[in-house]
Specification:
There is one protein chain. With 409 residues, the protein is α/β, with parallel strands linked by helices. The strands form 2 sheets. Strands 3-4-2-1-5-6-7-8 form an 8-stranded mixed β-sheet, sandwiched between helices. Strands 11-10-9-12-13-14 form a 6-stranded parallel β-sheet, with helices on both faces. It is globular, with a radius of gyration of 21 Å.
């Protein structure tokens, strides 16, 4: 097959959508298919183009067999609404135009977030008269309201109408969890057109390893129990709970425990300023790190934090960070209710806490610090579970089977 994939994000960006598109695409190429990804210049989350790239009308590269076409977009940091909206809408036009001039695809996939990327795929598929597959990784506009990026009103209702039209335009909808599937069915989407392909683990790059003591020295973590958060530090993450938990730990005299926050995003500067102002030296902000370094950073931690704000919407989410930490045999402290909490319980891979509850976070990290054997058993159990049930090779093969069925209709 010739697969055309629209994605606003792609490596060297390190967020979950970029990683998923790359990992699926490279496996489909290995299986003998042609994969082209239309994306933009890498710039997330700062809105500044990465070294080695430029924000040009069109540029091409090949990444592990995937033909990557990058189009011009209005650049904006990962915060605010007006400039980000312009960023999203500009992608709709520039990527859509590029999609009209690609070699004849057999099938088009578009992944959300962001919302207008989905519409890019829908419109190009209609004009080129090929099957359209919509990958739903986030529920827009509901998620916008959940993080207070926009208030309910006429604009949100209009986006909701567009959302329903987008679902109707897709011949197949692929979600990343059963929670999303249930919500789509509640909105009237026929269950027959929804499939679930979860996130998973790349066993080639994510596997248990020894701690990197040089990294510990670099970030001032020597002799500490390290609880790491590795990912986007955005509005949905609710990481102000880390500041409150760090304060409690200092009050308890637990100077042996440190939080390591790896990544960047809309609220990173604000959180770092607050931590500095409160003299919370038990929080280290490592900033955005190269993707090849992520496994080593996970291995260097003693536990991993996965957290989202306490919103009903997020009960449907299965964060990719959960799989990454588990693959590295690290116990997870999970501040996400619903589907993710059920999965962590099934794998016996960590401790579930109430989102945004600093006392429970403090208790969980203290418990794991004080009982290294418990932390080791939980990490090993989590690793066994994800290797057995969430291997990316199998998931990519299952996804490919769905695509083949779609093109044969």
């Amino acid at each position: 097959m010739k697969i055309l994939f629209f994605s606003h994000y792609f490596p060297p960006e390190v967020n979950a959508p970029a990683t998923r598109v790359f990992q699926m695409g490279r496996r489909w190429v290995r299986a003998g298919h042609e994969v082209q990804v239309i994306t933009c210049a890498p710039n997330v989350p700062t809105g500044k183009v990465y070294d080695g790239y430029r924000n040009r009308p069109i540029q091409h590269e090949t990444v592990e067999g995937i033909r990557v076409t990058r189009t011009w977009t209005f650049l904006a940091p990962n915060k605010g609404s007006v400039r980000r909206s312009l960023n999203y809408i500009s992608y709709l036009f520039s990527a859509g135009l590029a999609g009209l001039f690609t070699r004849n695809p057999d099938l088009i996939i578009a992944t959300t977030p962001q919302f207008f990327c989905g519409w890019t795929g829908a419109l190009v598929a209609r004009l080129r008269r090929v099957p359209f597959v919509l990958e739903v990784r986030d529920l827009w506009p509901e998620s916008i309201v959940a993080v207070n990026a926009m208030k309910p009103g006429l604009a949100i209702r209009f986006l909701g109408w567009l959302e329903q039209k987008l679902y109707a335009a897709a011949g197949l909808i692929v979600t990343v969890g059963d929670g999303y599937r249930s919500r789509l069915i509640e909105r009237g989407v026929p269950s027959s057109k929804i499939a679930v392909i979860t996130n998973g683990v790349d066993r080639e790059t994510l596997k248990p390893g020894a701690r990197d003591e040089s990294l510990r020295e670099k970030f001032g973590l020597a002799g500490k129990f390290v609880c790491a958060y590795v990912g986007t530090i955005g509005m949905a993450c609710g990481l102000d709970v880390v500041l409150r938990a760090a304060t409690l730990l200092k009050q308890q005299g637990r100077n042996d425990i440190t939080f390591l926050l790896v990544g960047d995003g809309a609220v990173r500067d604000e959180l770092q300023d607050q931590a500095t102002g409160q003299e919370l030296d038990n929080i280290i902000f490592a900033g955005l790190q190269p993707k090849p370094l992520i496994p080593a950073l996970l291995a260097t931690s003693d536990a991993c934090l996965v957290h989202l704000r306490k919103q009903e919407l997020f009960q449907s989410v299965l964060p990719s960070k959960l799989f990454e930490a588990a693959a590295m045999a690290r116990p997870v402290i999970l501040g996400v209710q619903g589907s993710a909490a059920s999965l962590l319980t099934d794998m016996n891979g960590g401790i579930c806490i109430e989102p945004e509850n600093e006392e429970e976070l403090c208790s969980a990290v203290t418990r794991l610090s004080d009982d290294p054997s418990l932390a080791r058993r939980m990490g090993e159990s989590a690793c066994r579970h994800v290797q057995e049930h969430f291997d990316l090779d199998r998931l990519a093969s299952d996804y490919l089977s769905l695509l083949e069925q779609e093109t044969s209709r």
